[in-house]
Design a protein that fits this description.
Distance between the termini: 25 Å
Strand content: 25-35%
Oligomer: single chain
Structural class: alpha/beta
Number of strands: 8
Radius of gyration: 16 Å
Order of helices and strands: EHEHEEEHEEEH
Length: about 150
């Protein structure tokens, strides 16, 4: 059986991304480490020092993990073509949260942009916001997904 371990987001500013995911979405920092290895054999991008932060839930290992990765490479500029990793981000991350509480926290932090909201078939609110690197984050209610149809 194949299981997704984590989704990685290549970030521009790790502190701002931590504010979004840790403070806004209330994800817990599970690992925060610096690797002093060249990750070119693994990622296709030569590195000297890489900071990696894994976020998730220490109480629920099945809740999923997001990896924020700062490659420490000023040469990776937005829109600059490269081999290996994308310049920044992924398309979409979907998390189950207290949607109203998260939207309120993000607004207070000045993060997430103008949310787009949607009423699910069960009458609950879902929303999308944007993280500091332009990744769309879908906020789903804590209602089990099977009920959302």
């Amino acid at each position: 059986m194949t299981r997704l371990h984590h989704a990685g987001v290549c970030v521009h500013d790790l502190d701002t991304s931590l504010r979004f995911y840790r403070d806004g979405l209330e994800m817990q920092v599970l690992v925060d480490t610096v690797l002093t290895n060249d990750l070119e054999p693994l990622l296709g991008v030569s590195t000297d020092e890489v900071r990696i932060v894994f976020l998730g839930s220490s109480d629920n290992s099945d809740s999923g993990i997001i990896e924020l990765i700062d490659l420490g490479l000023p040469a990776i500029a937005d829109g600059q073509p490269q081999q290996g990793l994308p310049a920044r981000g992924v398309f979409l991350l979907s998390v189950q949260v207290d949607v109203d509480a998260v939207l309120s926290r993000l607004a207070g932090l000045g993060l997430g942009g103008t949310p787009r909201t949607f009423v699910t078939p069960t009458g609950a609110t879902a929303a999308t916001v944007v993280d500091p690197d332009g990744v769309m984050v879908e906020l789903l209610p804590l209602t089990p997904l099977s009920v959302m149809g």
